Amino acid sequence: MDCFYAAVHMRDDPSLRGLPVVIGGRPEGRGVVAAASYEARKYGVHSAMPSSRALRLCPDVVFIPPDFRRYSRESEKIFAIYREITPLVQAVSIDEAYLDVTDHLGEWGTATRVAKEIRRRVRKERGLTVSVGVGPNRLIAKIASDFHKPDGLTVVPPEKVQAFLDPLPVRRLHGVGPATERALAELGIQTVADLRNRPVEDLLDRLGQKHGRLLWEFARGIDERPVETHQERKSLGTENTYAVDLRGLAGMDEEIDRMAVEVSTGLARRELAACTVTLKVRYDDFTTVTRSRTFTFPALSAGPIAAAARDLLRKTDAPTRPVRLLGVTASNLVRGQIEQLWLFTA
Length: 346
Fold this sequence. Notes:
346 residues; alpha+beta; MutS, DNA mismatch repair protein, domain I; Alpha-Beta Plaits; DNA polymerase, domain 1; four-stranded antiparallel beta sheet; 13 helices; 38% helix
């Protein structure tokens, strides 16, 4: 979807159309940008940016508080359209998905026509635009979907995959973050063509067996990952940005206890338990750190989650620095109601 959060508001309130719109907290309240319309992006505004900086970049920006329930309801309706086309739909986020239409071309006959039908229906039924990439696998389709946004359609047939990939910077490949990009640059690799022309041994030596092999394949347009319709939740967490910086462990501990209850309630509702707890801390200068702990036995209740997070807090600079954000996340989740078993029966 194209700037999904902002687009929903702009659809429902025509007076917002054409304006630089930011979904997020107010700048005077220490808010953060959750999403920005394309008009706002022209000024350099982007997600995760402090709202105060967004206002400096674009004094005419219109701030709208997020309404995540509204976005979730809209997402469900859009995904329902996808699933009428094919049952093989993998949700990546609330506004992004992979669709495998290999065996579900139906009356349209080709994947390109299917893509056009999806764009037509989303526009007609939901009043929103979606940018679609069509390719022989997930890697190519994802990269293609980012071309010609908003409201774009980019088709890469199998015989043109290499010509499509070669001129792209390596950062466009899945799995290439800042650290990997720097490592590749040290090898003189800037483009996908550069990557493709390096011996696989160079990549394995520098990036490791698994990652090196994967990028070697991606540079050739090879991606065997299937569209997965059923995915286990990998983590569950909550975080909060404070209008006034937290100072002192007592107040931070109260917040951690509250978050632990929220996380444990979510775990119980899904019949999950956590093997790992991660604490996230953002200081007043926007420096962000995380600390994690893995349990010897999975945790379900708020008590051990809170205790671990409070202990991790003391392994940061939070006791002596103002804190802007706190977050608690449970990960390495296991299914089923977990309980300690007694070694001896009564």
